[in-house]
Amino acid sequence: SRGLGRLDRKFGLAIDNLLSADVVTAEGDLVHASESENPDLFWGLRGGGGNFGVVTSFEFRLHEVGPDVLTGRVIHPVEAAPDVLRFYRDFMTDAPDAVQCYAAFTQVPPLPEFPEPLHGQTVLVLVPFYVGDIESGRAALQPLREVGDPIADTVQPQPYTVSQRSSDDIYQEGHRNYWKSHNLEGLSDEAIETMVEHATPIPSPFTTVFLE
User: Fold this and answer.
1) Which of 199, 197, 206 minimizes the C-alpha distance to 105?
2) Distance, CA of 163 to CA of 69 (rounded, Å)
3) Where do the H-state alpha helices sit in the chain?
4) What percent of the chain lies above the pLDDT cut of 70?
5) CATH number of the domain that 16 lies in?
6) Are 116 and 203 within one domain?
7) Sorting pLDDT into bands at 50, 70 and 90, what band is 200?
8) Which of 15-19, 98-102, 162-166 has the weakest average pLDDT?
9) 8 Å CB contact between 65 and 172
10) Which residue spans within the chain are E strands per DSSP?
């Protein structure tokens, strides 16, 4: 309910950019909630899930993005996951706000952008993302693209709207996806080892373990 995304390091979570909301309460009243009007309700809406009423409209702060961003997938053999994840952890600790990256254990989807011999294999994927000047982005994302010995790299400039649809071919309309998350205080070596142990092999083409 917080609103994680590719822009959160630079612009904050979705809840950080919520300015106001119109809400129908359990009593049937339509009320307006913002920092200055019904502030307690506004506080609850920013992360409290569906516990306070039915929202009929949101007002969000907007940010100028793009039109192009730099993003894609960098795929590693799963055997390299411990070393790659340790680098990923250390790099992202001090990365610029314009850089976002998440990691995922998944099966390579049968898409033409990936070599056919990789289809169906369990792999570790880094998904770097840069918002800003594209050439500056190439330099900023270079370490994430060069770590280890990647077996595929699809990072390229693309419209932000296209990047938002990058998983449509994997998580198709009509699939009843179930998501579960946990928070860690940090990505320790022990946490990485445990994750690698239990996330491999991925049991189905529709199963993914994300690190954000």
Assistant:
1) 199
2) 8
3) 8-11, 39-45, 81-93, 134-146, 160-163, 189-199
4) 97
5) 3.30.465.10
6) yes
7) confident
8) 162-166
9) no
10) 18-24, 30-34, 54-60, 68-71, 74-77, 99-107, 122-130, 152-153, 156-159, 209-211
